[in-house]
């Protein structure tokens, strides 16, 4: 359904591929993480990759998770992709996005780093109280922290 929305927008999309296959260090992760645990709309609060920490600066960056798909708002463009979840192991791939340029270089750089990091995540951890849920997605050099915006029922 998310891809239909992107297609309906009639914009040129760039398909990026990459599958993370290494589960990485699982210490501290809940082995029982399911899609229903992470289903919903999340807002990025901070992130880092091999190049260092990201500055979000009030730019709304979201990740919407449902069944076997992700979508959301990157700093400049909307995106969508495929999702696999197996316990704490997670994979996001086949990300496509609209091709609108940001109005400043900092947002362009944040978008590039965010979308690249999504394709490299290998683990998911959910924590916090019911009304202050947090999601941490991690990869070999990537860590992204999100807070729940809206919890959605899993299908």
Quaternary structure classification: single chain
Total of helices: 3
Q: Which regions are unreliable across 5 or more consecutive residues at pLDDT < 50?
A: 1-30
Question: How many strands?
Answer: 10
What is the distance, rounded to the nearest whole angstrom, between the alpha carbons of the first and last residues?
13 Å
Shape call: globular
CATH class: Mainly Beta
* Class per helix and strand makeup: alpha+beta
At the fold tier of CATH, the topology name is Lipocalin
Q: Which CATH architecture? A: Beta Barrel
**What share of the residues does DSSP label as strand, in percent?**
35-45%
Largest sheet: 10 strands, antiparallel
Total separate domains: 1
How would you characterize the overall build of this protein?
This protein has 155 residues and is an alpha+beta fold. It has a single domain (2-19, 32-151), classed as Lipocalin (Beta Barrel). Helices cover 16% and strands 40% of the residues. The chain is built from three helices and ten strands, in the order αβαββββββαβββ. It has helices spanning 2-8, 35-38, 105-118, and strands spanning 14-16, 40-49, 52-53, 62-66, 69-73, 78-86, 89-97, 123-127, 134-138, 143-151. Strands 1, 2, 3, 4, 5, 6, 7, 8, 9 and 10 form a ten-stranded antiparallel beta sheet that branches. β8 and β9 form a beta hairpin. It is globular. The chain starts with a helix and ends with a strand. Residues 1-30 have low confidence and may be disordered.
């Amino acid at each position: 359904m998310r891809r239909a929305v992107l297609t309906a927008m009639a914009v040129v999309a760039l398909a990026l591929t990459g599958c993370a296959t290494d589960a990485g260090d699982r210490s501290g992760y809940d082995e029982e993480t399911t899609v229903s645990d992470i289903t919903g709309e999340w807002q990025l609060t901070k992130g880092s990759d091999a190049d260092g920490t990201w500055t979000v600066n009030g730019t709304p960056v979201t990740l919407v998770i449902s069944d076997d798909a992700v979508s959301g708002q990157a700093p400049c463009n909307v995106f969508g992709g495929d999702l696999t979840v197996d316990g704490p192991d997670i994979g996001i791939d086949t990300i496509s996005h609209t091709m609108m340029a940001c109005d400043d270089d900092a947002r362009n750089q944040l978008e590039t780093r965010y979308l690249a990091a999504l394709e490299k995540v290998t683990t998911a951890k959910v924590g916090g109280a019911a009304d202050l849920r947090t999601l941490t997605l991690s990869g070999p050099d990537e860590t992204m922290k999100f807070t729940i915006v809206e919890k959605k029922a899993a299908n």
